[in-house]
Amino acid sequence: MRRLLVVALLIELGLLLMVIPWSAYWERNYFAQLSPVVNAVITNNYIRGAITGLGAVNLLFWLTANTIAWSGFACSVASTAFVIGAVAMPICCVVMAHFPKLHLIFAVPVLSLLAGGGLTLLEVAKL
After folding, report:
1. Can you tell me the distance from the alpha carbon of 126 to that of 121, in angstroms, rounded to the nearest whole number?
2. How far is CA 84 from CA 5, 50, 96, 107, 116, in A?
3. CA 124 to CA 13: how far, in whole Å?
4. CA dihedral 41, 46, 109, 81 (to 10 degrees)
């Protein structure tokens, strides 16, 4: 039962992250109307693209981990790396929008997503 709930959550979260940033709801939500700065950040196409990409990564990781019935240390490291990338990417986008000289902070989400993807690919290659 627990596994079914996790599967449903991952599918729903991935699909929502891919669709909602491009919907009209995204531009008319409470936070967008709260401040012009917040509106400028969340309606930025780079931010929308980053969130959509995180949804795609979430779906692909679920498909891979579910297909190979993967568990253990490598799975937990890969999923942690994907979560770090998912949290750090939008933060880096916001920081870069205001402080372009800090472009090296993109190494955090990029390297964590590459590490998670690499571990996933290694496990798939073992099959």
Report:
1. 9
2. 22, 14, 18, 12, 10
3. 23
4. 100
Q: Using an 8 Å Cβ cutoff, are 22 and 48 in contact?
A: yes
- Residues in the chain predicted with pLDDT less than 70, given as ranges, are 1-4, 6-7, 65-71, 127
In the block, residue with structure tokens 């390297």: 111
Which tokens sit at 49? Answer: 């693209």
pLDDT, position 127: 65
**What pLDDT score does 85 carry?**
82
Q: Which two tokens stand for residue 32?
A: 């967008």
CB proximity list for 58: less than 8 A, separation 6 or greater: 10, 13, 14, 17, 82, 86
Chain-centre distance for alpha carbon 91: 11
Tokens of 89: 């990417």
Task: Give me the residue label for tokens 């571990």.
Answer: 119
How many angstroms separate the CA atoms of 127 and 123, rounded?
7
Q: Residue 51's closest CA among 92, 81, 11? A: 92
